[in-house]
Amino acid sequence: MGPDGARLERRGFLLSALGGAACLATSAATARAEPASGYIPTPSSSFGLLKRVRTSVLDIAYAEAGPADGRPVLLLHGWPYDIHSYADAAPLLAAAGFRVIIPYLRGFGPTRFLSEASLRNGQQAALASDAIELIEALGLERPIVGGCDWGARTACILAVLYPAQVRALVSVSGYLIGSQAAGATPLAPEAERSWWYQYYFATERGRQGYALHTHDFARLIWKTASPRWTFDEPTFLRSAAALDNPDHVSITIHNYRWRLGLAEGEARYAAMEERLASFPAVTIPAVTLEGDANGAPHPRASDYRARFTPAYEHRLVEGGIGHNLPQEAPDAFARAIVDADRMAGRS
After folding, report:
1. How far is CA 304 from the centre of its chain?
2. What does residue 282 show for φ and ψ, rounded to 5 degrees?
3. Which of 2, 27, 104, 182 is the most exposed place for a label (fewest CB within 10 A)?
4. Distance CA 163, CA 49 (A)
């Protein structure tokens, strides 16, 4: 059996393990996860030793799983999470023959800036540039990109700006590309309230408060964003350690202030931001996911449906699944990656 046949066989095994063809969703589908919203025991998943790669700005630490010759999958975490959002999905994908790459974003974990002089910039284009440079530095050939929260936004940006370099997209909470102009538009009061932390970070009190209480702040976000996910303390602390990065507070504050137009970006990203401000469509195969108990601010699926071409599916994942969907429902997330790959065919 050739390499392609072996990969297909492994992916077929994963589909069988995840419920087979009967579990595959349609564009209006609902997927029920196993009861991940219940008590989560002390985690046993581990990525082992991290690898490193340099881009023009960063020394990026990343985890890798699966065969070196497998079809590449780039998974991007969000805030205030880390690579362990994929601790249980990655082994499923590795067993199916995918090569899974999971980097720590700038300002998280062991990832470091190469220069002290670099602006600790959290704008969306900077994060996307990190990701595309990582793809190029590792020589990844048209990876499937997937993400949640900040990582979903970055994955969407890669899909719209670099469609020839990305095979397919899996995005939790859909189309998350933003712009400073859009961020300047007031929302309805209830929607504004859900963004309380963004406005808190706009103040000096907020910056100081986050620096002083980073872990407690993150724990609060975890609880409110996933109100039915009863994670245990070791699970939280495993990820909270990534927030001790010396640049984490600066990157976080800049990210949210940039969205409101309260912080400047960098000139090198201006052309990219101009393109993103037109909200270009996703033209590669894509699957979007949403948890039925997502307590974080997020758009309705109907709001972004027009941003995707016909090679598209949206899935509601039930079972009390919140914002950190890949960690709360790893089977549903892994299935979406496999299906996005199948939607892309043999291209």
Report:
1. 17
2. -85, 120
3. 2
4. 31
Domain hosting residue 336, numbered range? 3-343
Buried (b) or exposed (e) across 88-112, using 16+ Cβ within 10 A?
bbbbbbbbbbbbbbbbbbbbbbebb
Q: Any residues with CB less than 8 A from the CB of 5 and at least 6 apart, and which?
A: none
Residues in a beta bridge with 315:
29, 289
Mapped onto helix, strand or coil, the DSSP state of residue 52 is strand
Regions in the chain scoring below 50 on pLDDT: 3, 6, 13, 20-28, 33-44
**Residue located via tokens 């990065």:** 245
Give how far Cα 282 sits from Cα of 82, 182, 259, Å.
Answer: 26, 19, 22
Which amino acid belongs to residue 188? A
Looking at the 3D structure of the chain, how many domains does it have?
1
Dihedrals phi, psi of 92, to nearest 5 degrees: -65, -45
What does the pLDDT read at residue 16? Answer: 55
The Cα–Cα gap between 317 and 228 comes to 13
User: If 0-12 CB within 10 Å is exposed, 13-18 middle and 19+ buried, where does residue 211 land?
Assistant: middle
Q: Domain containing 76 — which CATH number?
A: 3.40.50.1820
Q: What is the pLDDT of residue 320?
A: 98
